[in-house]
Amino acid sequence: MAKVLICDHVEVEKLALGPGIDVFYRPTITKEELLAAVGDYEGLIIRSRTKVDRQVLDRGTRLRLVARPGTGLDNVDVEYAKSKGVSVINSPESLVEAVSEHVVLLMLALSRKLVQADSSTKSGKWEKNALMGRELKGKILGVVGLGRIGRRIAEIGKTLGMSVLFYDVIAIPPEVLSSLGARVATLDELLTTSDYITLHVPMTPETRHMLGAQKIAQMKKTSVLVNTSRGGVIDEEALAAALKEGRIGGAALDVFESEPPSGAIMSAPNTILTPHIGGQTEEAQANAIVVIGEKVRAFFAAG
Hints:
By secondary structure, this protein is an alpha/beta fold. It contains 12 helices and 12 strands. The strands form 2 sheets. A 7-stranded parallel beta sheet has the order 8-7-6-9-10-11-12, with helices on both faces. It has a 5-stranded parallel beta sheet with strand order 2-1-3-4-5.
């Protein structure tokens, strides 16, 4: 019987790991306690709190699987795990709808000055004429990263009457582009052409600060930038400077280089900042746990 340690707060009953897996639930386990205990387990289930680094993996002499509900694996040394024969899995498919809806919400909120309108009206003002907005229909949507979420946002954008451009380092099948009514562009073309740009790329050495000062300078003065992927893919200082100088139209960030965020981005104008809640819906969180439970059961059932 496989022994699995759950290191963070998870609804264990929704995992439904079954009688073939011996579950140990320690949601507040410290790093020192984990290092002392990990050698006894074949599997770890974690959320964002627990870091599975080389030290943990070296101590996990029986470890075969690390599983995390949701999309992120930034807190796992994935390559080192693989080098030691440890599989790493997550359940990104469970958050597609939630994150996609959040992206569209952020685009709409910036376009219609929703935050300012709410604050102004609640303060007793009636600034109807000052709160002129823009429609999404007829605008160009640039999607950087054509994964599940990128595709879903393209579908929604198309429904809203937007034209869609894609950029990805991986070749995009023609049938996918055809079904989405989209076309491939270089990153430079996407940045200079798009009215709305949304990022959906993993955090890697290659993507770190992929949108720095030089790339941000290519954007249109009216462009809106949305990031719900990983904070480090944008140079926040460069973005804040562009916003303060009026060189781009606005930015909506759900992820940050450090969380909670700090620095110049906190006071930059024409922004909406949310606390990494793209996947925070009741449906998505419940589904993330159910899906990862299914994957963990399948892994150990396969021997």
